[in-house]
Amino acid sequence: MCERCAWVGSNTLLADYHDTEWGVPEYDSRRLWEKLILDGFQAGLSWLTILRKRDAFREAFAEFDPQVVAAFTETDVQGLLANAGIIRSRSKIESTIGNARAYLAMQAKGEDFSTFIWTMAGGSPIRMDGRGTTQSPLSDAISKALKQRGFKYVGPVIVYAWMQATGIVDDHDTGCFKHIAPTAKG
């Protein structure tokens, strides 16, 4: 068996996620937005909880289509609060709706979400040292820029976790089979 990042442990769902998704560069704007939303829902919880509920989240939030989510009403919020398949936090649900609107506002101004994020990151994945960093100057800057655009649940720690998940930073443990030596600080 190959060595993986310590956070994987022996869980097969986490192992599959680690091996196929975590740290793989994502350039699709809508997928980047979906993962940012899921990282916001993770706040205070484990990633395993989110992974187990990801399909239910996708169903509940219309496959993370920002156009649909931005139009959600209080009736939709009530339905989501009753949905045992997702995390039933009013503030996280309402922030998702607001974040869909912020995403669409960026689009309306000609700001592509992926281009915006990857430009801030320098255009390619940043190789890190795998030492358990939880935020960085880049996650601080992206958090601030997203907040200025109306996003919520995008603090620097959430943004850093999202950067790891989406391959903006490659932060595999040094003993992990997917680790690549660092090139810069994220």
Mean pLDDT: 93
Helicity range of the residues?
Answer: 40-55%
Number of strands: 2
Classified in CATH, the superfamily is: Hypothetical protein, domain 2
Oligomer: single chain
- Which structural category do the helix and sheet elements fall into? mainly alpha
Total of domains: 1
Order of helices and strands: HHHHHHHEHHE
User: Which regions contain 5 or more consecutive residues with pLDDT less than 50?
Assistant: none
Strand order of the largest sheet: 1-2
Major β-sheet, in short? 2 strands, parallel
Structural notes for this entry:
This protein has helices at 12-20, 29-42, 47-60, 66-70, 74-81, 90-108, 113-120, 137-148, 156-165; strands at 126-127, 169-170. With 186 residues, the chain is mostly helical. It has one domain (25-170): Hypothetical protein, domain 2 (Endonuclease III, domain 1). It has a two-stranded parallel ribbon with strand order 1-2. 33% of the residues are buried.
